[in-house]
Design a protein that fits this description.
Number of helices: 1
Radius of gyration: 13 Å
Number of strands: 7
Helix content: under 10%
CATH class: Mainly Beta
Number of domains: 1
Strand content: over 45%
Structural class: mainly beta
Length: about 100
């Protein structure tokens, strides 16, 4: 199984992916936000997400990954993990 991919996208990449400048539902992107909490999650499809605000620690069998404001994140299909939302998160996401 592949791992979580976290990157700081360029403005060109954000435009290419049609990520909205503010968190809103557009061009296949959905909005999700969550207050500080901890929960288990499993991805049934690959998810691509862009984080507008917040801080999250995602722990998998391979270790922990920190996700912050401005990160473009890819979660692979089949990934089982635990989310620890440290600061309220707001993101847009879509499944591939």
């Amino acid at each position: 199984m592949s791992t979580i991919k976290v990157e700081k996208p360029s403005p060109e990449k954000l435009k290419q992916l049609k990520i909205p400048s503010a968190p809103k539902e557009v061009d296949g992107w959905s909005v999700w936000e969550c207050p500080p909490s901890t929960f288990d999650w499993q991805y049934s499809d690959t998810e691509v997400a862009y984080v507008y605000e917040g801080k999250v620690k995602v722990t998998t069998a391979d270790g922990a990954v920190e996700i912050n404001k401005g990160d473009l994140v890819t979660f692979p299909k089949g990934l089982a993990c635990q989310w620890q939302v440290l600061k309220k998160i707001r993101k847009v996401y879509r499944f591939q």
